[in-house]
Structure formats: structure tokens, C-alpha cells
Amino acid sequence: MALKDFRPMMERCSNCLGCKWIPFDKIQSQRFGENCPINLYYEFHIYSARGKFQAAQGLLDGEYGYTDALLASTQACTACGACDIACKVCRYNLEPLDFNIALKADAVEKGNILPVQKEMIASLKKEQTMIIGAKKANRSAWAKGLKLKDAMKEGAEVIFFPGCKYSYDKKLQGYARTAAELLINAGVDLGYMGEADMCCASRAYQQGLMADFDARSEANIKAFKKAGVKTIVTPCSDCYYAFKRLYAAKGLEVEVLHVVEYIDKLISEKKLKLKKPVNMTVTYHDPCHLGRLGEPYVAWNGTEKKIMNQVHTWEPRRPRYNGAYGIYDAPRRVLAAIPGLTLVEMERIREYALCCGAGAACEQTYPEVSKFTANERVTEANSTGAEALVTACPWCESNFASAVDENGKKIEVIDIIDLVSRAL
Amino acid sequence: MALSPEVYKAFEDVVGARNISQDPAVLECYRCYAAQSSAHYGPFDHKTPMPGAVIMPGSTEEVQGIIRLCNKYKIPFKAATTFWAAMGYIGDENAIQLDMRRMKKIEINERDQYAVVEPYAIGAVVQVEAMKRGFNLNMAGVGCSSSTLAGTAGWVAFGPSSLFMGTASENMLAAEWVLPNGEILHTGSLGAGSGWFCGEGPGPSTRAILRGKQGTTGAFGVCTRVAVRLHPWPGPAVIPTYGTIPAYRAKLPETIKTVTVCYPSWDAYAEGANLLHQSDIVYLGHRQFNMFGRDIKTAMIKILNDPDLQLCDLPEIMADPYIKEQNEKMKIEVSLVIVGMTQRDFDYKMKALDEIIRRVGAWKSEFMLEKPIHDWTLLYLLRLGHKNLNYTLCGSYEGNFGMSPNVFVTAPLMESAAKLKDDYAKKYPYIADTGGDSDMGSLAILGGGGVTGWEFFTCFDRFDKASIKGACDMVNISQKWMDDHKLGVDMGHWNANARREDGFNYTQEQHNEMLSKLPQPWVCGYQYLVKKAFNPYDLGGSYYRTCDPASFAKK
Q1: Which residues of chain B neighbour A15 with C-beta distances below 8 Å?
Q2: What is the reported pTM?
């Protein structure tokens, strides 16, 4: 949908400001009650879904163009969807996240692209990754020595898709190997995309770089189809979201599993036994794109319909992504299966978890906002008394690595794959 | 038009460059489409004016600095926090909008049982912090997303728990107030250096000036801190919750329970309300879910309790014989929360409730007692965290009728009011046709009871101009009905004399003309003199209604 198509939603937003908070029923303290990274950082009203609903009306009416604040509000938004979930506790006819993405796309269409975004686009085109400086030639370094089928040459029904971060980050490469080995050892006939393993472009979509997302996703879908892929397993939450929601909307019909879901499955089927105690207390960070945005895609092509004179509904029934069916329990079951490990929860969890600050490539486009958000989350993590912060997304992991809490204290950040491997 | 660079720099020096903005898109966000919010709080189909700048002060001293500059440069100003409705927004071109977002401290005094709150401490966070210490607060009916300070110091702010806890005017203790002329006033005990425990003496007893019953709606300086009375909460420090979004549910001890009492007639309702007022057993009482409309309330509760159901499912759910039966049984109802301070207290209260039910021939809704729905309702009512449901049907709603006299006066009129609205919705397609009776209201709007609150929800589509006009027509029709029944001003017209239809403040001359004709003109005449003393340049806006005594004294 183009920005102008959101006009009815813009006008029907009721200014309740629920988009700035976690669902009110879930608030446990003032300190950790708010949910929007950019609103926490900038504070003015425009840095919220509601603010943008209003500001975009002036934009559409030609009262102003993309002002500095409107642009910052649009670009710095991590597209984490926290506003969307909070809104949908009550509303059935507003889609704040889709609107935010449309606003980003509109800004891009009107030529508002940051220099660092241009670098990312150039890298995506040349090296098929949005990680600036990474080289295509090094992409498969993580897989060296692994007995993986090259899906493009041999065909493979189940492929492991590590994503850019696991492919290029030296530390994370080891976790990608571990995850792939876990699956192989459990008897999975596993492949990977070999030369055709490229960026999913989820982060292009999150930034409103639609042409780049379309080009990359369509090429990937073609490659998956050619390789006969039936199941994609990925350790990256961004890739997971891309395949499960965005690619599905483009016609990709495959099963998509995050590694943590696969590990959970192996544990429940008794194909994987975690024996070694890991005696520590940890807290778990729900990645936005695995949690609240990790719900399966449901096709819909419909229009608004009013019933009872003026009650807004959709015909046919419109899918309602409100985070109810995100991936929250699988990682928690995996943690529970590790002997000696104690999980203590933060206040903002599951569908109302705070973003890590890395969404929509914010750590590159607005690093100060991204860092502030990561620090805020680490403050919450440290408030639980946990010794480590566990997550299932490489972008979160990377953003938390240098974060400190409000007292300047860090926390050990552990990839859930690493934690599982410690218990093997 | 923007502020001059010199003036802008002066404000910037007070709060720092980060906390002031003249960016047109930022300013646009501080305008209110009146029909988007509750229309009865302001004009209907206009936006409020564009501010000259938006400023976010971080302390009382900064607020004082801003107001002194406003006086120096004769710039009107208005402070708001959660921007619920038109009353929070400025009413003059180039006025300063203060966004109090940065001031959000909460300090709780357990011994004296009050919380000192700053403007951006919303009801939800004051409640959760209070509950950790065994207290609760009167949550205004507007819901927990709104500022506790704004309700306490600036508005009527009654709510479902007002029967037990009192309304805003009853809960306000001492306050720190930056007056419109920039002076800081510490009211009540705070003014005598004795802390926050009392809103009147020792110290300046100015509560009647600063808030009275209805509040000055932000048009008389800026209240920067206020002490609000806390009330007992015998439940856990944090309300344990379970359930899947959007139906979060409370897991509370058996001594905290919600019961929806249904009545065979409005006469029985009135008698029941009267007995509930007298019995002192109710922690919270509200006719809540009828706001969707009498015909659909049970189906709506079903939808709100299931992550997979949507508004398009309404017709099918309503056709379910069980839902039909339960809806019919809940035609005239009120939801209560009974809280036992001890097991014995709880047992007594439930026994007393059963006796009241028996005496008036009422019954408990079995549908609302089903465990998942019970636990959802309990959390809903205790937290009041679903304000946005007011809008969920159509995007906007208008409060109609707004009757608040003694329950024996209003209850017999309910069916007549309901028919008026139902007839309109059946004849014209402009407002939601979900049942004429869409009354929502508190069991009491005064501590201890005596009077009840009634507000009919007229839901309309703010995106549809014909629907807006239809809602306006309904307001006018209901006003005529109110006049015919000598019930005063319909909610849709409540603030018609506070802000003009074009979104701007009234001039003093316009107010003189209007208000001098009202009964008891000396009320606004007195406020005129107060304004002269504390707000010499008239910088607060016309929500503070004033009338030059000369305009009526000569008549």
C-alpha cells in the first residue's frame, strides 16, 4: 500500500498514545513501562506511531515536505512493531507497523536516502550483503569443512540459511557451524545455498528500500525454487521474518524454521539431549522478528466493509498480526532443558519485548538511537540479577555486545546456540 | 508563523536546544482533530491551531522560566501531557505548547498514604508503583494511559473506583503550581513547609481557585507536582497476569472478585445502586461494556477474549443462541469489583451483595463469571488499560447525554434516551447501529455515592464527513432532549463555551457576551477577577471561563 492509502488509518487513530507503552495490563514498573525506542530517545510526540499518523497527514496535504524531525522519526524507527502490538490490544482497524514501513518507503521514493544507506545498497548490489565492507567471496567461510550439500548443485529439501551476520562475523561463524552440525548430527540431510547464498534483504524492507528488497527477494525465491527447497532453517531472526512473512507474501511456499525451533523439536523428539550442566542465571531477550513479528503469513486481498452502519471491518477477514503466535516458547523450552540453568524474566518480554535497537539497520543509520536502546535493554537485563543475556538473533547479540546499563555495567551476551553447545 | 529568533533563543536557553522545536511536522503533531478525540471536549470538525513552538521542560524551574518568558513576550501557553483531547491543546496562533513528557517522577509516602506525582506519571505507572506498597489510586475514567496529575489537578476525573476512593477533587492534596504570571505557589500544607499531606491548611487554601470541582483544564498556569491520596490495596505487589494478547487476565486471590449484577428494570437498577452506595462494600463499580451498544456487548466481550476473533465476526457471534441469551440477561447491568481486606471482610461483602441482589430481584451474570472472562474483566477494570476500545468500532465516538444527577432521577429516563439514539441510528446510516442504549458510566461520581455517571457512546467515523455530521446531529437532538428533561448540558456541548468551533479560544468580549447570560454569572465574574490578579496578560486560554462583571452587573 502507498502512503496515501493509509489516510483512513491516519485519521482514525484516536490519540490514545498506547503506542508509546507496552500493553498497559502488562506494566510492572514505571522504569520499564515504555516500548518505543525512538520515543524514549527523542521524546517529542512525532517520534511515535501516533505522531507519525498525524505528521503524515500534513505531508500528504503538502503543508511541508520531509522536515528534519519527520525524516529522523521515519528513518530512526527500528520497525520493531512494538507500537503495532500495543495498538492492537484494542484496535482492529489500524496497522501502525505497515504504515511506518510505507512512510519509510515514501521518504526513500522522494529521494531521502542517507549516505550510509547508499553504501548498504551498493554493497547489496555488488556483494549481495548489506554489511558494508563484506565480500561475497568470503560468505561461505563459516561452512568450510562441514558436510553440507550444495543445494544449487545437488538439490536439497532442507537448507541452512545462516544470513549475513553469521556468515561474516568471525565470532558468530562458529555458532553457525555449531547449529548446522547439530542438525547434521541429528540426521538431517542438510544443504545450503552455496554460491546462491545471499542476503535476504529483510533490512532493506525495514528501511523502506523497496526496489532493493524486491530485486533481492525475487532472486532468492527463484534460487530456492530451483534448488527444490522445502524447508529453510535459519539462526537469524531477520532472515526468519523475511522468509516467513515477506517472501511468503511473494509466493514462496516453504516451511521456515528458526534454529531454536529446530533444536526445540530435536529435544522434544529426544534426538538431542543436553547433559552438561550450565550453572548460571540468564535472562532471555525476545528478538522482534522472531517474537511478535514471527507470525506466519496469511494471504489477504480485500477491502474495508462497514457493518451496522459505521463499524469498520474487512472483507474477507483480514489477518490480524498482533503477536499472539510469535515464537516465544520454543527458546524458553530450550533454556529449560539445559541442566543447571536458571531463567529469570525481564519485565518487557514476548510480544511486548523492547527492541535491541538494531532493527531497520538503526545501528548504522542512527547509531546514537541504537546504542541508547541497547543500553536501555541491558539496564533491564541487569535489573533481573541475571549473569548473562541470551538471545536468538545475531543483530541483537551484536548490538548488546558493547552496551552498558545506566550504571555503566555490561552484561555477558550469549547466543542461544552457544549456550546449547555448552550443554552438549 | 514561527517565533522570532530572539524569542526562540530565549526559550532555548531555558530548556536546551534538544527540548524545543519549531519543526512544522513536530508542531503538526501538537494539533488536535477534535472529532478524532472525544468531541465533547472541544469543537467538532476542526483542528486546534498550530503552536509557535513546542517545549519540553524538565523541571519546575524550567517551567517557571518558560512562563516568565511567555509573560515577557505576551505569548499564550498551555501545558499537556498525554494529549487525550482538545482541551490539552493551545487555542491561539503561535502559542507555546508545553509537552510535559520529561517530568515523570513518582514519590510515594507510605506513612501518610499519598503519592507525589509529576505530569507524565500516567495512571498505570502510578498504580503499579503504589501497589508495590499496598496502595491503589482512583483511576480516572479516561483510563490509565492519562496523566494522574492532569486529572487530579485539572479535570473532574471520576472513575469506576470513585465510590470507594473519591474523585479527583477529593483526592488532591498539596500541589506545586507555577501560576500564569510565573510565580510558584505551594498550596496547602506544602506552603507552610509541612509536607504534602493536605490540600487545604496549614498554608494557602487555594484548591477552590486552582481546581474547584471541574478543574481549570490546564488554562491556569502549570501544575508541576501534586500529591494524590492513596487507598488500600490488599492484593499482590504486582498483579500476576496470564493469557494471550489481546486478552490478558489477572490471577488474583479469591478475595478479589468481579461480579456483573443484572437488573430486571431501571427501577431495580436505581434501587440496587442506592443500596450499593449505602452498603460500603464496593471497591469499584462501572457499567463498562455497554459502551459498545446493548445489542452487541456480549459478542464484543467474546471477541475481546479471543485472539482470533475480529469485528467482522460480530453478526455470527450475535446469532449464537447462548450469546443471545446472555446478552438479553445482561441488558441492564453494572460490573462490580469486590475486594476483601481480609477473608472475613470479603465474606461479609459478598453476603451483603447477595442480599442486595435478592432485595431488588437482580442476578449475577453467569457469562461474566466464566473463569477466563472473569479474570479478563478483573484486570480490565482494575487497570483501565483499554481506553482505545472506546474507538474500536468506528474510529471516533461522541459522548451523549452525560446525565449526572441522583440515580432515581436519571434511571427512569434511560429507555427514553436509548430510544432517541436508536431511532436516529435506524433512520440514518451515520452512527453505529449497535443498540440505542450505549450508556457507560460509573456507579458513583462522588466518594461514597449519591450520584451516578451516565454517558452514551455515539460511535462514528471520523474519516467519513457524513458520519461526522450525523454525530453532530445526534448531539443536537440529545441536547434538545436534555433541555426538555431539564437535565442541563449534553456532553457534546460541555465545552462549547470553552473553545470556539474553529478551534480557537474565545475572546474576552465573546465570553462576556456568552457567559453573562448564564445562571449565576458571578461564578465566571469571580474567575475574571482571579484571572486579573494571577494572569494579567490572559495567556491561559478560554477553558478558564471568565466574564467581566461589568457585562452583567449593569443589566
Answers
A1: 32, 36-37, 83-85
A2: 0.97
